[in-house]
Every structure is written in C-alpha cells, then in structure tokens.
Design brief:
alpha+beta, binds alpha-D-mannopyranose, rod-shaped, 511 residues, 8-stranded mixed beta sheet
Length: 511
Amino acid sequence: MHFRSSDLRLRLTGIIAVSSLVSATNIIGVPPEKQHLYRAEDGKWKCLLDPSIVLLESQINDNFCDCPDGSDEPGTNACEYTEEDPRYFYCANEGYFPKFIENYKVNDGVCDYDVCCDGSDEYASGQCENKCKEVMEQYRKYEEEKRNGVEKALKVKDGLLAQAEKAKNALARKASEVKKLLEDEKRTLLELSALIEANENTESALPLVEELSQYVENVQEQFSRLQSSDAAKAKRIAQLESMLAELAQNYNPNFNDASVKLCVRLYGEYLSNKPGEDEQPNLDTFKEKMAEFYTKLSENQPSDIKVEPYINVEPSFRNMVHHYYGKLISNFHGVPEGTDKEERQKERETERREKPASRKNIGELTQKLESAQKKVNSLQAELSIHVENIQRSYGPDDILRAVEGQVTSKQIGEYTYKLGYLDSVYQDNTLVGRFSRFDGKSLHFTHGSKCWNGPQRSAVVEMVCGPEPQLVSVSEPEKCHYKFILESPIVCTAVSEEELVSGFRVDLSKL
Ligand code: MAN
C-alpha cells in the first residue's frame, strides 16, 4: 500500500536523485541520534512502526510514501503532514541551534531561515545559502538584552520578595501581639466574673451574718441585764453583811438574848463558808466558746468568697464575722453601757450604708466586665482578620503581598484601564471585576458590572516577565471577558537557553 502526499507545492520526483538521499551514514532530515534507525541490512530496511513492511534501502527518501507511519520519507514531503500526524525535517544549523521544520516546507522554494538558518530545507535546489552566522549574531544580541533584562527584573523581584516577607512578618507580629492582648483581656474577664460571683455570694451570706449579729446582740443584752442585777444583789448583800458585822462586833453578851447569840453564831459560820473571789463564776469560759465559734465560722465560710485587696468590697463575710466577734468580745471588757449602746447604734447605721456600697461595687464590676467583654470581642475580630490574612494565598513566596494596594493603569484604545492587584480592574469607571485568585501566572478578576444584554464582566491578567509593572495590551476574546497582558517582575525566573532560543525571532530583513 502506498501513501502519496497531497501537498502539491513541490514535485521533485524527477529532480531528486535517489542515490544522493540515501547514505549509509547520513539520512537527510534525520537527527544524528536517530540515524542508527535507518541502518539497512543486506540492502533491506523495515518501516519503523510497522516492521512487517520491508523496503529496499533505496526506497528511503525516494519521495514516495511507503510506510504508513511516514518513516521512510524523513527528508521529503511525500508523506502527508497533518495536525494529528505531523512530520518534521531536521536542520543541523551548524553554528546555531539544530531545529525541526514541518516537512511540507521542505523544498518548497522558500528559505525558512527562522528555522533552518543553514538553508538545508531547500537542499534540492540549493538556493538558500547558509546564514547561521548572521542568525547567531542576532541571537547573541537578543540573548544579552534578554538576560540583562531578566537579571534586572529578578533584582526587582528580590526586592518584592523581601518586602513581602517583611509584610508577612509584621502581620505575624501584630497577630501575636493581639493574641497576647486577647489572652490578657480574657483573663481579666474571668477574674471579673469570679469577683462578681464572689460578691454575690458574699451578699447572699450577709443575711446569715445579720442573724448572728442579732443573736449576739441579744446575748449581750441578757448578759448586761444579768450583770446589773448581779451588782444590785451584791450591793444589798454587802449592806446586810455590814449590818451583821456591826451586830456581831457590838452586841452585849451579858443580855443573854438567845436570838442575838444564834444570829452572831450563824453569821460567823456564813463568813467562814463564804466563797473566795477566785471561785466567782467568770465569763472567760463563755468568751473562749465564742472564740471557738468564730474560728469555726471562719474556716467554714464559702471557699469562693475571696476579697481581693485592691478591690474595695466591704463588708466581706470574714470582715463581718470578725467585726461582730470583736464587738462581742469588747462587751466583756467593761465598756460602759451607755457608750456601748450609742456605738452599737452608730455601727448599725454604718452597716446599713455599707450594704448599698457593696451593690455599687458589683455595678462597677459589671461595667468593667462588659467593657472587658467588648474588648475581647473586638480583639477576637482583629485577630481573625490577621489570621485570615496570614493564611490567604498570596502566590509563591507570598510575593503579591509586596504589591497589595498598588495600582497600574494605562490608556489603551479608547479606555483607561486601572488594575489594582488584589483588588479590582476598571475600564474607565466601569468595574471589570474584583480580584478572585492568582494561579501563579495570571490574576483572575470576576463579578464585574453587567454588560448590556450580556454577562457580568471579568478579566484574566496574564503576567509576563518585565522589570517594571506595565499594562501591555488588552483584548476582549469574548464579549465582556477581557484578557490583559501585564509586564511584571513578579513572574520572572532565570531563563534557560532553551527558553531563549524558542523565544527568539529572527529578523529576516537583516539577513
Ligand atoms: C462597553 C465596554 C466594552 C464592552 C461593551 C459591551 O462599551 O465595556 O468593552 O464590550 O460595553 O456592551
């Protein structure tokens, strides 16, 4: 089965001498590393992808397509070139870089110096002299300019990277400061809550203390009364004793009055049986009991009632107990009755005034608590903004942080375009889109203003390496979907020779 090229641009059948195309060492159109595939054995050669088809060595490059894969015609355009099945011819381009040209351009009468600077694509006519030296000169110039440009742009990029790192570090510092403030404020909040609770407990403990106070006052009164009646009795006894002493000392024993004698005798017995001062009942036992009672009360007070020294919350439970205990004890140290009563009255009034003061403190504490809560909320909001920002994608090495907030604008055609890197794109005053993402090469903007009878505007800003940010072009591939080319150092990378060669365009006019 034979395959014939449909490309009729060149008909060389009669021109090409078969013997010149086939050589044991060099098959035209084949790169050196593939030459070995064309070595014939006993004058026979097999199609590369279909070895069942065996050809004569002379059928290679005979300008007749014998192999279905076209491998027998690397140096002609006999086998058809299609997008799905492309075929290439190798140009050695000595002194420049080897390249491949589509086979339909081989021997078509045109010197394709942009690919084959050695003119080998027109080997049949030999009409294209070798221009590789000139092309190489052009390339070297281009290479130097390009490398210098990229080097300069990379320096700018380094600056941007340093700026981005600085911005991120500053943000991280800010976030940790806010975090610390937040923790402190949360602690204050907890302390205030605990204080308020303790105050409330103290207040709830007050009725019990009041009850105790009333009881103690009652006991005090009873004791006072007892003391007074004791004193009156003692006075009367002393009177009687002095009367009897008088009688015992001055009666006339010669009168033989039996009643007087009995009275004097019994008085003598009374004196000898009279208890000494020491044996008088004293109140110390009672005081000791009260002290014990006080200690127990102090120990058993609710554990969460704590009064911080710097906050004036009075009376505390402890203070109240201490106060009443002190008052009770002082009563047993002989404070005159009148004074004591007046003082007690005064103290009671003071106590009444103190209670609303405690409530006032709770009010103040609650206000402090509310303001601490507000601070916590706002610090929390601030912290989440910083954290969200730190976690946000700013491209490789966070480089977009360096251009955040910057705008690049240019008049192109009838409109002025304004590009805010992480913000928005405007066409005059029309919103083209808001920043949505960065894919490492292009910035994407979406949800712009709606087109009349069309979609919402959007844009893709493709970045190419350049030392300065500069809008190069804008197009509208689809209605209201814009494509920008932006030169920027952001996407610059060191260029390889391969990239330089593929990016180089020969200036044919200078050859
Ligand atoms: C304006 C501009 C154009 C756009 C049309 C759509 O003229 O925004 O870019 O194509 O509106 O109506």
